[in-house]
Amino acid sequence: MQRNYVLRGALFGCLLGAAACYPGEIDSAAQTDLVVTFHDDAADFQANATFDMPDSVVDIGVAGGGSSTLDHTYDAQVLAKVAAEMVAAGYTRVVSTPSNPADVMVVVSAITVENYYYYTPGYPWYPYWGWWGGWPAGYGASSNWYYPWYPVYSTNFTSGTIFITMVDPDIPPPTAGDQVSIWSAAINGMLEGTAPEISSRINNNIGQAFAQSPYLHVP
Amino acid sequence: MRIWTFAAAALLVPALASAQGERSSWFGLTWSMAGTTGTTKDFVSDYSLRGIGLEWRQLRGNKSYGLSLGWNAMNQEALETSSLPSIDLTGFQFRYINAYSILATGHAYLGQSGSARPFLGIKAGTYYMNRRVDVGLWTVSDNSWHLGVAPEVGFVVPLRQSYGSEAFYTAFRYNYAFKAGDTPTQSFYTIDIGIATRR
Question: What is the end-to-end Cα distance of chain B in Å, rounded?
Fold first, then answer.
């Protein structure tokens, strides 16, 4: 009898040890944020000193001819932060005219996407308990799992992306009428959280886009 | 790779061929902890407490051969900037490695039966490696099968006589999975603590 206790205790201890530490997962909307920057290796950023930018955020959904759920609450903050980062990088903001064009144009655009997921609450335990050998014959790690006493939940969240694009009008485009981007940033994440949290994330992520692009700095 | 193959063969074959004496089977269950080395450490560097091992050994005298199954889950999270040509990317990265092993084993035991005994062993077989990176709202993953070897040292301590033929045992193992396709060599060490029953 003692022998069974030893074996059962060891089995339970090992399973507990394996299952106790659930691996790290996203636990805040801020952890979904992604800042990606692209640049043209051939561009001479040091040759530019002035910039101009429109005073509105382009809604890509509408511009593309579709509907949009883009919330314009933060447009002014986004535009102000981008302009401030450009100035901090050494550029001077000007009003571009045909006779006196700015060296680069900075355009800000955005899009939102609705995402839907369906899940059952017990699902995350599947990889662990599937290892247990005590299931009746015919069950195991490859079995489908159902929890009839739980409802199937659905959840949705809105993700959004802000694009910051720097265009150099002096570079001839490959196709007439197009513009050549020498630098662009895409800031992607979940549009969830309180207003102060979203506001803070906007500032942090726009700042990060410029921080990870030191080649933008001009004398 | 050739050196490791010869080493595995040199230790496994004698264990299979020359083991003589009283025969008995050993079934072991271990809690397996892991730490990464080499290129695997570049991917996940945190020490992991999540893992489990199952083992069967056929004992003959002071040697044994058998089969070992293992699973080790390693993960790491960090806010990082990764750079590629013309591209820089910043975000929280959640990196995971699930390493599954199916290994043939050979062991040699020192000391006397019935007392605490150190052992040396070599394991060889296959590793299935699942690597995954969650960054932002995106996931990238790959899966690969590797051939590999794992030298091992450990000791076994019989439990009190009243518990019959159960024994506590622990082992340190260095797992080396050879390069497979585009996936580089994977290596990690494990510290196993468990219990074995002998029949």
Answer: 37
